Structure formats: C-alpha cells, structure tokens
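User: Structure tokens for both sequences below?

Assistant:
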Amino acid sequence: MNEPLKALIEAARKAPRTKSELEVQRRSFAYGNTHFENDRITREMVNRIADEMPFSEDLDLGVNRADE
C-alpha cells in the first residue's frame, strides 16, 4: 500500500462520525447480513424495525424510505 493511501485510510479512521452516519451504517450492516442469509429480507423491513427502536426515532437520516 502506498503512503498517500495509508494517510487517507488513517484520516478516515480518525474522522468523527455523526449519530446519523452511524445509524445509516448500522442499518446497512443489518440489511446486508440478513439479506445474505434470507433474500426475502428487504431494506424496508430493516428500516421499519429500526424505526421502532427507541433510540432511532430522534435521528434525521435524510433518507426517503419510500424510495428504497
């Protein structure tokens, strides 16, 4: 791996993440892992369940779930 790439990776590791970014990543991870095992799982299902979780309701994700 070249030095410029190493520097970019290190900077990305140290970059602060917002709660919204972490929530988007969490949902993507949940979808990817569950859909891999069961292709009937949809992003809509993951979002619906995540929205029911108490800590998810006050995050503005900027995602239009109807379009997914």
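Moving on to the next sequence.
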Amino acid sequence: MEFFPEVFLFDGTPFAINRIMMVRFIAVAALLILFWIGTRRMRVVPGRFQSLIEMGLDLVRVNIGEDLLGKKDAKRFLPILTTIFFMVLFLNITGVIPFLNIAGTSVIGVPLVLALVSYITFIYAGIKKSPKKFFKNSLFPAGVPWPVYIIVTPIELVSTFVIRPVTLTLRLMMNMVVGHLLLVLFFAATQFFIFAAGGLWPLLGIGSLAFGFAFTLFEILVAVLQAYVFTLLTAVYIQLAVADEH
C-alpha cells in the first residue's frame, strides 16, 4: 500500500530507485522481451504467440488509429499510439501481479509524462497541419460572433490547452490508486478475519476473499480499459488537431 516506498538503490542521486521504480523497470523489460520473442521470427502464417502480438497491434492500428485518423494519419502516428497503449497496459497490469502488487501508473510521474507526450503530439499535429492557423482556429472557432469570443476564447484556452493534459493524468492515476486501495482493503480484511479474529469472523473472511478475487479480475479489465481510453483520447486529440478546419 506504500506509494512512496524507501529508496533501496542509488539513494541520494537523481537515479534513486524504490519499489515502484523497480516495478516500472520490470514492466518495461517484460514488454520489450514479449515483443522481441513475438516478432523475432515473423511468419506469413503466424503461430499462436505471433497471432497474439498481431491482435494487440491491430487493436491499436485499426480500432483506434484508422477508425479515427484514417489510414494516412494513422500510419504517421501509429508508433506513438502503440507505445502509449502497451506501456500503459503493462504498467497498469503490475497492480495485480503477485509480489509486485502495485501499478506503475499509481504514482503521478508516469501518467504525467504520458499525458505530456500526448499533449505535445496533439500540438505538433496541429502545427504541422496548419502552421499559421492552428492556435487561431483553436481559440477563435469559426462562425462565432466577435463579441462572444470574450467568453468563448478563455473557455477554449482552458479546455483545450490546460484541462486535457490534467484530465489525462488524473484519470489514469486515480483509477489505479483506487483499485490498489480496494484490493489492499479486501485482502487485509481477509487476513484479519481469518487469522486474527475469532468466533465466526473467519466466515466473513471467506466472503472478503471472494470479493478480493472478483475485484482482481475487475482490475485486469480496468487496466486494459484505461490503456485503451488513454490511447483513444490521444488519437481523438490528434484527429481534432488535423481536422480540415485547422
């Protein structure tokens, strides 16, 4: 349950490593190894493992990239969308892996960095599409009477250029924090009811254990959904940036 564990390596340096940093390193290493094994011997008729990797890649390419951006823009931004999806997924899933038991995205650092990457990509896409009109069209939407811009422009400024990275960060982090706390609550209650409390309390412990396992399955679903939603929103922001009005 410790979100700020003690440093155990390189203490006092910019490279200090605690338990959560170690979990992040493990998740990234597992991701790289998985893709290396799955793609080192590509075949026209894929085996089961290659098929699994291709299914994940197609999920991002087709369901997120091409459906929102079209084939041309999807191809341009596919590397960053794929990286975001699988990085968020693997860092989320560590929250339910025994002996790791905490999501690498449950502390603000990684969600904030990923949100900034998404935000910078959105700005880059808009400027690349319309170097002279991107900010003007974003802050001064077409078809609005000039006096109304006094109200509309500040709203657009805050909603488009401030709230987006903030909501991306908080949505991902808080989902992982809440899930972790609930799992800790269920399994800590199970330990107390079964091993510390007497009488009929162990029966309640069986119930809390069942809820703990059920919520573990739910957390796996949340881990996948949050990776999908984060990547989908990134693609939506890019699509808004490269829309014709920009």
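User: Anything stand out in the second?

Assistant: The longest helix spans residues 149-196.
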